[in-house]
Amino acid sequence: MDNICLWRVISRAPGLKLVVETLITSLKPIGNIVLICCAFFIIFGILGVQPFTVSLSPTSGQLFKGKFFYCFGLDVRNITNRSDCLQANYKWVHHKYNFDNLGQALMSLFVLASKDGWVNIMYHGLDAVGVDQQPVTNNNPWMLLYFISFLLIVSFFVLNMFVGVVVENFHKCRQHQEVEEAKRREEKRQRRMEKKRRNAQKLPYYSSYSRVRLMVHTLCTNHWLDLIITFIICFNVITMSLEHYSQPRSLDLVLKYCNYFFTSTFVLESILKLIAFGFRGFFKERWNQLDLAIVLLSVMGITLEEIEISSALPINPTIIRIMRVLRIARVLKLLKMATGMRALLDTVVQALPQVGNLGLLFMLLFFIYAALGVELFGEL
Fold first, then answer.
1. Which residues on adjacent β-strands are paired with residue 94?
2. Cα 109 vs. chain centroid, distance in angstroms?
3. C-alpha dihedral sign at 191, 194, 200, 205
4. To 5 degrees, how large is the angle CA 251–CA 257–CA 262?
5. What is the pLDDT of residues 14-47, one digit of tens each?
6. Residue 345 pLDDT > 70, yes or no?
C-alpha cells in the first residue's frame, strides 16, 4: 500500500514523473554498462592476484598476492621479514584491503573506484616487497601504473558512462513530454494574446495620473535613471570595499555618512517607483521586490546600529554584525542592469524545478530505505 501511495504521488507531479521514467528507461543500457564495469573489475582483480612474469620462484612473480602484510610493533626499523617480526614478539598482520584472492581484490578495487581511501591502498602496493617481506616505502614506483590505469579506465571512463546514459534517456523522455507541453504553451499563448487584445483596447494605466504623478512615471521609466542608479551602486560597492582592520576614525565617519546617503537614495528610488507604478504594478516585477527587500534591510541595519550606539535598548551585537553584512546584498541590484548576468540567473531559476524534482525523488528513496531499515533492523 505504501508503494502504491508513493507511485500516486509521483504520477501527479509531471517533473517527478519525468525523472522516474528516465531512470526506468535507463535500466537496460545501465545494465550493459554494469556488465562492462564488472568485466574490468574482474580483469584488474585477476591481474592483481595472478603472476605477471615468469620466474623460478613461485611467489616472486606475483603482483600483490600475499604482499599486503606488515609487522605491527613499537620499533620495526630493523624488521625485514616475517621471521624477524615473530622473533621480536610482534604481530604479522595484513591490511584490511588486499589482493590475497579475487574476492579481496574486488573489494579493494571497489574502494579504489569510489575514490574514498584509495590513496592508502595505492601506497601499500608501492611499498610491497614480497611475500613474508616487510614493506619498504616506495619500493616499486612502477606499480603506480596499475592503480592509475584502473582509475582512468574504470573510475573516470566507465562510471561516467552512467551519467551519459541517464542524460540521453532524459532527453528522450523529455521529447515525449514536450509535445504535450507545446499544446499547453500554445493554449497559454492564445490566452495571453487575447488578454493583450483586450488590454490594447483599454487606456493605459497611467492615463488617469495627475500631472505630477505622470512626471514621476516618466522619470522612473527613463533609461537614464537606471544608469544613474547603476553608477551609485558601483560607488557603493567601492565604499564597502574600503573597510579594513584598524581603520582610522575619520574613515569610519565617511563610510557611515556614505551608507546614509546610499540608503536614502535607494529609499527615494523605491518611493518614486511606488508612486509611479502603484502597489500592484510595483510588486508585479520581481526585481522591484528585491530592491524593496534590500532597502528595508539597509534601513533596519542603520536603525539597529543607532540603537547600539545610543544604548537605548539592550540588543545582541551579533544581530548588528549580520545586518552590516547584508549591505552586500545591494550588489544584487547590479544584476538588474546586466543583461548577460540576468540571462544566466534566469537559466538557473528555470533549472530549479528539475532540481527540486530530483531532490524530491531522493527524499522518497531515502524514506523507502529508512522504512525498510526500521523493519529489518529496528529490533536489533
1. 69
2. 27
3. negative
4. 120
5. 666 666 676 677 777 777 778 888 888 888 888 8
6. no
| Phi, psi of 70, deg, nearest 5 | -155, 160
Which amino acid appears at position 286 of this protein? R
- Close Cβ partners of 283 (under 8 Å, ≥ 6 residues apart): 289
The residue behind cell 504594478 is 281
SS3 per-residue string spanning 75-96: CCCCCCEHHHHHHCCCEEEECC
Assign residue 117 a region (left: φ > 0; alpha: ψ between -120 and 50; beta: otherwise): left
- Amino acid present at 154: V
Q: List the single range of 81-85, 193-197, 202-206 with lowest mean pLDDT.
A: 202-206
What are 154-194's pLDDT values in tens digits? 877 777 777 777 777 776 766 666 677 777 778 888 888 87
Helix (H, G, I), strand (E, B) or coil at 266: helix
Half-sphere exposure of 266 (CA within 13 A, CB side): 27
CA-CA distances (angstroms) from residue 231 to 14, 133, 226, 227, 357?
44, 73, 9, 6, 40
Query: What are the C-alpha distances in Å from 310 to residues 154, 304, 314?
Result: 66, 10, 10
What type of residue sits at position 370?
A
The vertex-353 CA angle with 350 and 359, nearest 5°, equals 140
Alpha-carbon gap, residue 13 to 20, rounded angstroms: 11
Q: Per-residue DSSP letters for 326-344?
A: GGGGGGGHHHHH-HHHHHH
Which residue's C-alpha cell is 539592550? Answer: 314
Length of the chain in terms of residues written: 380
Q: Which helix (H) or strand (E) holds 348?
A: helix 339-377
State pTM to two decimals: 0.52
State pLDDT tens for residues 315-339: 555 555 555 555 555 556 556 556 6
Which triple of cell numbers denotes residue 124?
A: 601499500
Give the Cα-Cα-Cα angle 359, 341, 339 (nearest 5 degrees).
130
189 compared with 107, residue with greater pLDDT: 107
What Rg, from alpha-carbon coordinates, does the chain have? 34
3-state DSSP percent of the chain in helix, strand and coil, to 5: 75, 5, 20
